[in-house]
Structure formats: structure tokens, C-alpha cells
Write a structure and sequence with these properties.
210 residues, alpha/beta, Rossmann fold, seven-stranded mixed β-sheet
Amino acid sequence: MEFDEAFWDERYREHGEHQAVWSGQPNAQLVAEAAHLTPGSALDVGAGEGADAVWLARQGWRVTAVDISSVALARAAAAVDDDPETAARISWLHLDLTAAQPPAGPFDLVSAQYLHLPAPQRDGLYRGIAASVAPGGTLLIVGHHPSDLETSVRRPSAPGLLFTAEQVAAELDPRDWEIVTCTSRPRAASDADGAPVTVQDSVLRAQRRA
């Protein structure tokens, strides 16, 4: 399966105009890792329906929110129509970062939450967004850990789509980066039948050396 623009546009459309695909809450690991950071400029990669971008904006960040799906971005922008102060802090950008360069930085925070691509595409995308981090800035990458495939929760099962934080960290030059967080972090979730399950998030936070 190719997770391209057509796939994601259809994924959002099939839920209907007024039914969200995601929870509407910011991702837990973003909150855990970024709540204490000094707000500045942020790049939200794979912004989806915008919950992370909105949370960052409300913390004082100026956010460039990028997604491959124009359908998702339209929903994200509409969700803050009644909050002009938040909306003014977010730029919504329709862009396929597997085929194009990231927006011109540098950014004080670059966050990519749960982007699951084949390893060659993923590594290329991560190299591109890492290059957009300002000196002293933060790179935050979070994904589903491969051990989730051993649970009853639904996860992409194609080989190589899930990854560990250590795999991401190995691609960063230690001369340029300080690894701050590199871990598998448990999180409570529910499977498709509503049964409780503990999943693991791969969490990599690194700071570019000044």
C-alpha cells in the first residue's frame, strides 16, 4: 500500500465531513517533551487535523503545519476559525515531504509524530527535516514501536514501517546532535474492540549543537 496524497485524502473523506479521524487532542509525547521548551518557531510535520499545531500555537509557538492531505488541512484550519488568535499563529502548508524539501527554516522545534513510511523514504524525510532545525533547536520524532505488532491494537504491518528511537538516533551525526531522549515509552490505549492495551511509543528528542 502506498501512503500517498490520494490515500490520505480518501482516509479523511471516508469519515465524513463532521467526523474526525483523530482524537482532537495533542499527542501525549509532544506534550511530555515540548511543554517545557521556550516557544519560538515550530515545524509540525504530518499535521493531520491540526491538534498538535493548535496546542503548540496556544503555548506561544509560531507554527508551520505541513501535511500531504489538503482535506486534512482544510479541516484543521476550519477548527480554529472561531479562535483568531490561535489561527494567526499557524500557517497551514500542503506539501508532500517525501518528494519536496521542507519549508525554509531554521525552526526552533521540528516535530514529526507517527509518520510511518518505508525505511528509505522515512530516512530521507527525517534527514530533510533534521536539516531544518536551528542551532540549539529541538528535533522530536515519535512513532509506534515494533513491539505493538505483538498486541491486539491495529498497526501498519508492512515490514519496516515501525521503528525504534535507536534507529532514528543512529542516523544523527553525534558531532551535530545531543540525544536528550531515546526511549520506548508505554502508553495506555484501546484496541478496535475497546479492550485496554498498553502500547509503546518510540520517542527521540535531540538538540542540535549550537
